[in-house]
């Protein structure tokens, strides 16, 4: 960004491949329904954090897809992945998008509802 010779493919020679986040633990144990509510609240308010709505939409689709489809989504949307687990990404204009782990995977302390 800003440098005529910069490119998302230079440096290590390849784009970062999307991967699942490492196991993580939420501060309080959550049920599946609480986790889904947190996710909905995040995605409903995400465009207010800045950036473009279409990039937020692509990131949501990628977060909810399997890894190979997620990779195709971020590639086609022009998303620059800084953290392979999608927690930090940029669009082609340099806007930063930060995703909390709870929208990308389930915590290790998820309470199974019966």
From TrEMBL:
Residues 1-10 have a biased composition (Polar residues). Residues 1-31 are annotated as: Disordered. It holds the Pfam family UBD. InterPro entries: DC-UbP/UBTD2_N, DC-UbP/UBTD2_N_sf, UBTD1/2. Residues 16-25 have a biased composition (Basic residues). Residues 16-113 form the DC-UbP/UBTD2 N-terminal domain. This is DC-UbP/UBTD2 N-terminal domain-containing protein. The lineage of its organism: Eukaryota, Viridiplantae, Streptophyta, Embryophyta, Tracheophyta.
């Amino acid at each position: 960004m800003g440098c005529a010779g910069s490119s998302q493919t230079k440096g290590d020679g390849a784009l970062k491949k999307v991967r699942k986040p490492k196991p993580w633990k939420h501060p309080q144990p959550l049920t599946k329904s609480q986790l889904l509510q947190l996710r909905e609240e995040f995605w409903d308010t995400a465009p207010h954090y800045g950036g473009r709505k279409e990039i937020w939409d692509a990131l949501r689709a990628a977060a909810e897809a399997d890894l190979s489809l997620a990779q195709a989504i971020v590639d086609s949307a022009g998303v620059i992945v800084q953290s392979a687990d999608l927690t930090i990404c940029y669009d082609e204009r340099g806007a930063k998008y930060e995703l909390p782990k709870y929208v990308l995977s389930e915590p290790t302390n998820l309470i199974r509802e019966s």
